Amino acid sequence: GEGLRxxxxxxxxxxxxxxxxxSEILDLVTPxxxxxxxxxxxxxxxxxxxxxxxxxxxxxxxxxxxxxATNGAVQTAIDAIHVAAQPHxxxxxxxxxxxxxxxxxxxxxxxxxxxxxETATNYDAASVARAAAALAAAGLRxxxxxxxxxxxxxxxxxxxxxxxxxxxxxxxxxxxxxCGVMLESHLAEGKQAIANAREGLRYGQSVTDGCxxxxxxxxxxxxxxxAVRQRRAxxx
Length: 236
Known about the structure:
Largest sheet: 6 strands, parallel
Strand order of the largest sheet: 1-2-3-6-7-8
Shape: globular
CATH architecture: Alpha-Beta Barrel
Mean pLDDT: 95
Order of helices and strands: HEEHEHEEEHEHEEEH
Radius of gyration: 18 Å
Strand content: 15-25%
């Protein structure tokens, strides 16, 4: 309960400041308490095959990104995009906490997120082109997001700028397939373990995955912004 209240307060403050907010959709219950405040939602590589998560995505009004599976399969995410675009019925809780069955209208804003796999990356130009072609063959817009972390960074947060640099180069050269990137970023780089409750924790450092710090984040965003400006200067 307390965590949900804190999360909602943060999202409300973001909305007041007109700052877009994104969140991974991990379950079928908690989104009921904050989903209207999300600008973007994500379905992870380990849940992209889950029928329940696909149904939940169909109920959201925000665009939802579906990551390729942990084995690198893009088709799994493409299937999820198609399923989430359709109407569904499933049990959940109402806004006042009561059990109910809802009927969704489908979410037409599903899209692919390339995050690499346990053994390979898929952020390079050839991988992006193959994924875009697969989307087009499935009747979907050939537009996708590249996750600079996870499998694409070999789970080493320090390699994210290298991945982002490759993505920026593709954008600058005119790639229309890439419409966004994901970064694992925080105020301080690295990560820390939670020990003895919250005692001794460093403010602004991740307690989950390792993250690039703020200065590195700014440099990466500047590089990506310059790439977008170059692409806009030469419209297709």
